[in-house]
Amino acid sequence: MEAKKMGTPVIVLNMKSYAESAGRRGFELAKICEDVASKQGVNIAICPQQVELARIASLINIPCFAQHVDAVEPGSHTGFVTLESVKEAGATGTLVNHSEHRLRIADIDFIVRRAPSLNLLTIVCTNNIAVSRAVAELKPYAIAIEPPELIGSGKAVSKVEPEIVANTVEEVKKLHKDCVVLCGAGVTNGEDVQKAIELGADGVLLASGVVKAKDPKTALLDLIAGL
Ligand code: G3P
Questions:
Q1: Rounded to the nearest 5 degrees, what angle is found at the Cα of 101, between the Cα atoms of 126 and 197?
Q2: Which of 46, 67, 150, 151 to mutate to test ligand 1, by most ligand atoms within 8 A of the CB atom?
Q3: pLDDT at 211 exceeding the cut of 80
Q4: In CATH terms, is domain 10-224 a member of 3.40.50.300?
Q5: Distance between CA atoms of 9 and 185, rounded to whole angstroms?
Q6: Atom of ligand 1 lying closest to residue 146 CA
């Protein structure tokens, strides 16, 4: 069975391993995302901290993604996370190859090929256009272009490096026309999101702009105004 697609445009919130997204605070952030998505009628997905994935996915009614999986089948692997285990945890899919958790191309291929058989979506992160092209050949559900130097900078990729967003959209869709293309790094407000959509992206992947905000709900409401 083919994995259920997410609606676009979409905001994907990666909670990373910040203190602000651990335990109860992570659940509260997830609840804010769920409330805003349902009340405002917008698409929001979240990537809770790995140890919170099962609990949050069982209590929150928006797509939940793992932040990472390892390229291994279930078995004798200590501390590894399998696609099968995130499926059991209730995930819609997984981030793959985040710049803070890189994988080899063979491992990305393993995960992207295996995910559809488990009805899981893959969002593969890339750092430049050449890597985006290579990953597009693997036919993931989504590609998220994120120049690493802008991550956590508050300087949005869509404003500071608009050409990388527009060119990634163009190149990826040439190779894999149904691929969802997201952009991320430094995205913090509605204007950044609007710019990303104008450049052809199907949404954004972000973290600190919401997770580290004084008032995450206000930050999220500002972001969705750009959709
Ligand atoms: O996965 C999202 C990310 O790497 C971007 O981080 O903090 O710049 O939104 P941030």
A1: 35
A2: 151
A3: yes
A4: no
A5: 17
A6: 4
What are the C-alpha distances in Å from 176 to residues 2, 133, 138, 168, 173?
17, 9, 9, 12, 5
Q: Which residues contact 219 (CB under 8 A, 6 or more apart)?
A: 188, 189, 209, 210, 213
Residue boundaries of the structural domains of the chain: 10-224
Q: Are 77 and 50 in contact (CB under 8 A)?
A: no
pLDDT digits over 29-72, tens only?
Answer: 999 999 999 999 999 999 999 999 999 999 999 999 999 999 99
Give the other-Cβ count within 10 Å of 160's Cβ: 15
User: Residue 4 above 90 pLDDT?
Assistant: no
SS (H, E, C) 105-173: HHHHHHHHHHHHHHCCEEEEEECCHHHHHHHHCCCCCEEEECCHHHCCCCCCHHHHCHHHHHHHHHHHH
Ligand 1 center–CA 204 separation, angstroms:
9
Structural contact between residues 164 and 186, judged by C-beta atoms closer than 8 angstroms: no
**Looking at 52, 68, 146, 176, which residue is catalytic?**
146
The pTM is what?
0.97
What is the atom index within ligand 1 of the atom nearest the CA of 154? 8
Using DSSP, state whether 181 is helix, strand or coil.
strand
